[in-house]
Design brief:
This protein has 128 residues and is mainly alpha-helical. Helix 1 crosses helix 5.
Length: 128
């Protein structure tokens, strides 16, 4: 069994249980409360958020043809000024179909789930 899968299996089991029994659950604390995280982490999160304002969301995507972004914050009703890649959808789907060939090559579902779970903490920490 995949090491990544084994490492994150408890989280998956809890998520499946929540779906089957229909209760609310998350594997990640969503509240920025200093009661949950102390004073440092919420302040750091706010600083990182402010650093992203007025910037381009840098991510390399197949079929990118420019930038878009007139997003308004639902919390402040202020423009965020963050711009996202605009893609040619046909080129993007073409690249996705090509990537699927490798993805479907994984022998076991545990490898797929394990690698997906392994990216979550990395993705969240990359926002720092």
């Amino acid at each position: 069994m995949s090491t990544y899968f084994e490492k994150h299996k408890a989280m998956l089991d809890k998520a499946i249980d929540a779906c089957q029994k229909r209760y609310s659950w998350t594997g990640f604390t969503e509240s920025p409360s200093s009661k949950l995280h102390g004073k440092v982490l919420p302040a750091e999160g706010e600083r990182l958020f402010k650093e992203m304002l007025g910037c381009q969301f840098e991510i390399e995507l197949p079929g990118q043809e420019g930038w878009v972004g007139d997003e308004i914050s639902p919390f402040t009703n202020e423009p965020l000024g963050i711009h996202y890649p605009k893609v040619n959808i046909d080129k993007t789907f073409e690249a996705a179909k090509e990537a699927q060939k490798d993805w479907f090559g994984f022998a076991k579902i545990e490898s797929k789930l394990g690698s997906t779970f392994a990216t979550l903490p990395v993705s969240l920490s990359s926002l720092k």
